[in-house]
Amino acid sequence: MDQDYKAHFKVHCAEIKEWEKIHVVGSLPVLGEWNPRKSFPLIKSDYEEDTFYAVVSVPGTVKEFQFRYLRVMYLDPSENSLCEPIMVLSKWETLNNPRSCLIGVESMDFIARENVIDEFGSYGGRKQISDGWILNDKESVVYFRIHGEALKFFAKSYQNREYRLKVEPFDVRYSEIDGEDVVSLPTPELPCFSNTDLSVLTRDDPIFGDQYFNGSVFRNDMDYLVFRTRTVNLQNLAFRIEFYHKEKRCALSYVLPSSMSGTHGATVSPVIGLSSAPVGHINVNYMIVKRSQYAEKNPEVDSMRETFGRYWRKRNRMLQIGHRGMGSSYTKSIDHRENTIFSLNEAARRGADYVELDVQLTKDLKTVVYHDFHLLVTVAGRDSPSSTPTAGGENKSLHEIAIKDLTLAQLKLLHFEHISRANGTAPDSPVTLSVTPSKNETDELHVPFPSLAQVLRNVDENVGLNIEIKYPMYMKDGSHECEGYFEQNKFVDIILAEVAENAGNRRIVFSCFEPDICTMITKKQHKYPVSFLVVGATNRYMPFQDIRSDCSKIAANFAAGCELLGVNFHSEELLNDRNPIEIAEKYGLVKFVWGDDLNSKDIQKHFKEEMNVDGLIFDRIGEDEVMKQNVFVVENHNRSSLFARSQHNSRSPSMSRRCMSVVE
Length: 664
Description:
Elements: E1 5-12, E2 21-26, E3 40-41, E4 43-44, E5 51-58, E6 65-75, E7 86-93, E8 99-101, H1 103-106, E9 107-108, E10 111-112, E11 118-119, E12 122-123, E13 126-127, E14 129-131, E15 140-146, E16 151-153, E17 163-171, E18 175-178, E19 181-184, E20 197-200, E21 209-210, E22 216-218, E23 225-231, E24 237-245, E25 248-255, E26 264-273, E27 278-290, E28 319-323, H2 341-349, E29 354-361, E30 367-369, E31 374-381, E32 388-389, E33 395-402, H3 408-413, E34 416-417, H4 420-423, H5 452-458, E35 464-469, H6 488-502, E36 508-512, H7 515-524, E37 530-533, H8 547-550, H9 552-561, E38 566-570, H10 571-574, H11 579-586, E39 590-594, H12 601-609, E40 615-618, H13 631-649, H14 653-663
Parallel strand pairs: 1-10, 1-11, 28-29, 28-40, 29-35, 35-36, 36-37, 37-38, 38-39, 39-40
Antiparallel strand pairs: 1-5, 2-3, 2-6, 4-5, 6-7, 6-8, 7-14, 9-10, 12-13, 15-23, 15-27, 16-27, 17-22, 17-24, 18-19, 20-21, 20-23, 24-25, 25-26, 26-27, 29-30, 31-33, 31-34, 32-33
Helix pairs in contact: 5-6, 6-7, 9-11, 13-14
């Protein structure tokens, strides 16, 4: 009978908070088999500062195991006397490959790693630590955004001052507001909330971190503050906003649970001065992220075995990404209808490394791949001034309707034309504006409105997918792209569930113009990366009202602060100002570029050679070029060839292992 090993774990973590603990998770049953909820707790050393250790038994039959360290905290919902504290994931090691122990080789007298001290987040010459995602049904992450003209004072003594703001959470069950302050009542040992951390998007360092004891400077129309708090009892969580002037607290404001209607919106709270009288008010935008309602049906969502949320392999070759497949067929002279399985596969056949596609939801909550929020539905009727005679002599009228107001069956049944016919942006060139398929477009590959599941099942598995999630936003002129849209958590959960069920091992990158959707995706899962789409300074499009989407420098800071993979920059702004690229490079963000400028080969060359971007998203990919294979097919072929040669020449199995690790 094989003798058990004793595996030692010791890790130093200088950044750990006093209320946090260190756990280890890994491939062994004793380490939870990658389930963070079953991870093994380490003990804090009494002799070495910020150092934690544990010893576990490993069966003698085990030759190798993998593991990662994580930082956790426990929060107490305090709903009743039987309620147990809930483990919340603060930070974890997110290098793509986990730590590894060849226990048979590394042990002496059946004791392994006895004198090894790991550094949290660092191994293999690299370091990467990420925020945890939402692990529990009762857990939520609350975001406060204070920006624009958020402060207004009507008391003259409070006007024309510079203030510093600090946000402090409290539990309304164990606190009472006495005059201008919150008085704590007897509380449970553990709170139901975490500390509130801060990201300042308008400063040089946008990474979330601890607040200063006297808050951070906020000036109307100059600063952009984002506060973040985790909680396991949302209905009893409230916030105190403290105002400081010249190092002294001079006013307070409160955001109570009743102030937040829904999971996304804005609230206006009175500001109370030292005399307990109102002196002004503050506008706060909020977002509440909840655990994916489909997570329990897919256990892999919480597995820590692998993560691609911030993984990107740098290549000498710039990736080519097919825009809506072969391109925008309703506004340009493109031979293949955009956002169809055929168009996506045609781009893949012509050598696209990724293809970009747009996803939204119908009225009956079905995914459809289509770009615009609205369509023109054709209705036959009597003669009228707005009627248009058809080739058959009958009259038809066009009525604008949102895809969110149509069921999938209606999309398949009714006759539609492209929205550009109504808004005056239809091109002069002879392109088809009929969204309804022709008599020749009868198979699943050519028809519009394929589901995301159909795309995942039928598009060439060797091509990556850039899934742009379409969520409407306010424009700078005050208009809205599509009023009355779906609640954000529900909307994102449906799309993530369909991807989880049908994606397999596909390469997928999510993107979205709505920054809060990008944040939400990273808090609901960690397998797939997210890239933030930004318009930036433009004369071609109506700008967004949200400055995060309207300014590429702010966009890069936002992506860095929220630990996104990267940014999809607009070519128009970068051709005039390359500073956003430098910010992205500072924080190791992946740089994609989209825009009509990229239809020029010279502009493509400029972005590749002068700005060293990682990928371009453009129309007509592979046209007028020699047919080529995409980068992943080439890499897989090279990997297979190298492995075959190593197997032929190797003298021991270990040589093939080393060769494989080199090409990875």
